[in-house]
Queue: 4 jobs
Job 1
Amino acid sequence: MVFLVEHSPPVNAAPGSCLIPKPSSAAASPAKVLVLGAGVAGLVAAMVLRARGHDVLVLEASQRIGGRVWTHRFEHAGRTYHGELGAMRLPASHRRVFSLVETLGLTPKLRPFLSVFQGQGGLLDCAGQRFGFGELPAGLALPEWPAAAGLSPAATRFLRRLALLVTVMAPREVRDLAFPQMGTDFLAAVQRHLAAVGPEAGSEADFADPAAILAGLNAVQGRINQAFHLFLSDILLKAAEPLFQLAGGADQLTAALAARCGADIRLGAEVTAVELTPDGATVSVRRHGVDETYAAAQVICTIPLPVLRRIPVAGLDALTRQRIAGMNYAGATKVLLFCAERCWEADGVQGGASFSDRLLRQMYYPHNQDFPGPEGVLLASYCIGADAAPIAALPAAERVAAVRREAARLHPALARPDMVLDSISIDWSAHPWTLSACSTDWDPAMAGLAADGNGHGEAAEPQAWRCGGLVLAGEHCSRAKAWIEGAIASGQDAAAMVACPQPGLAV
């Protein structure tokens, strides 16, 4: 299945023999724990277990480590430029991430990542108009909230700003939840909140301040769909707090994890079946065209659930099957353009993001990435959930061209024939080893969840779960879904569930 446009990125791997696929053989080194998947959760689990004295074997279906951390590098004139096809932001409140970054010696690589609220000059392409992020043009055609007539001027302005944010920032699933279900109770709560905070509330100046919008959302919590509140609160919280990135690429985190853990990591090992046994679990694998079977007392499975659903797993209890089948997932697409010039800077944009209600949805600008020269890698389109489907459906030859046309509505210089030197895109829903971008709480069926929005991954309940000798882990098991923080928390919990000592692994 082809999911990359124009060309395939090189395998991103840190130096070290543990990342080189080993040829198949009838015998393998004994290991006490088998880990399925070499993404963040699997590598964290392997590192913790190795530190506790376990022998660990990690099986990864793809030909690269990192899972949904995927840095692509463009080569030009003897220099290297990078962009992120996967995870790219590290919120300051994610304590596990920064502890791990320090442990791996990567703290000097940290640089600010500017959000839409922190960058300079971000633009919106909405309802056919192009304008600055802090603006709200008169007459802009936006969806209407039900029963919104007769509100105070402050409430009207607040709701128009909220409608604009939902229109350009929220995926279609959340947009569909937002407007039809906001009735008179919601509108009355908005008015009470704005009256309580003073006559200046809802002023135009507040519209570029995520804290003001978030305060208004919190005031009406309980009167809006919880899935909508969870999504928008998380977006605004992460936009309001400091964000960071790793200069040189996010894949330095997973490469350093693999090198530090020292586990045997075997690439190209596709899991074809799992069977729970009284002694643990048996895992069938196809590797380099050869079928292998591994039996272990402890198996940690970090395979994304959309992929795991396609793998026969015998012996699961009813609750585990229900959790695997019931998890909601979202797809995502990204399109990177390697540009001869950072032409957006001539339009007054310095870092941050722009948004569109059209095909490309989100656009992110490089900042503090230590790029030499005038070139730059633009994340020209980032679409989540149902918004990713139109781009994903385009033939490979058309996808980048379509996004480039849309991006030129915001930055006309992108249409110049000599501006885009190279490009690449990814559709995570078509990636054979993920079939998704992340798990989500956007599903209306999950509306009863508590909307804490903290994303810390510090919940009291376990962030991995066990069924016999099989421990399921990954960001989908955590409270910090879709974030590296959640994958770390789940990997740590999974390692803690593995008792020591354990029998060896036989192949």
Job 2
Amino acid sequence: MMKTLYTVRSNPIKGCETEFNNWYSNVHLPEVMKIDGFLSANRFKLADVQVVKAQAYGYMAIYEIDSNDVPGTLRNLQQATWLNMGDSIDLSSLDISIFESIE
């Protein structure tokens, strides 16, 4: 099976970083992990040391999809209307990408 990663780069709403990190780690990731097809989830914060100084996003989440039906897994995510999106994430600046392993 090809390895598939679902990546989300994001920022908190200004002044809401603590709430953002609490919501993302303790509410959102566990909710996403309940969706059929998701295998793992990890969060990252932008490091102080960078090759390119100007960076648009301060946070990244990487989810591994374990499914032969990636479009179906993405539909499962889109249909999960019960997901709590919180009010500390800047939804206007999300960057979501899906990557496949090169074999």
Job 3
Amino acid sequence: MFPIGNSFPRAYRVTLKKDFSTIFSTGVRRTFGPLLFHVSENTIGHSRLGLSIPRRVGNAVMRNRIKRRCREAFRQSKDVLPAVDIIITVRPHDELSLDGYTQLLLKAVE
């Protein structure tokens, strides 16, 4: 499913503004801990991830660390995720471990 090296190619990202708008308007909203998930089915055949992390979450270092952990949680869970688009909106919080973000992601997609 993913290329060698377990990278995060563009095909597995939600990047277009119209896709974000569609998922925000039609997706199912679920809140787990400090994360708000917008989940919407897609016809691509694999899951995609989009992230929305406002500045109030913290400085750039903290926001980037949270982004890396969320992307890694998505990569580790790729085999069990259905064909859905997921947008994660992060709210201010103390950082969780990678396992914490993985558990929240899996719970949101159930």
Job 4
Amino acid sequence: MQESPIEHSNQVMGGTVVFRGTRVPLQALMDYLEAGDRLDDFLRDYPTVTRAQTIAALELAREALQRNARAS
């Protein structure tokens, strides 16, 4: 099984969900996308996060939304 691209720990930013191995909150990516910014803009501004991590995190979010929609 592949390691999750995100993690949360009380020792890292008080338990905020971050990209694994960084202190970059997942919410930062969501804020960029909500504002209409491109993924490349986010990656330029947060060089410790990889493109693969962002794509994997977005796929996790999509899967969670699909599971939630099926459960409703």
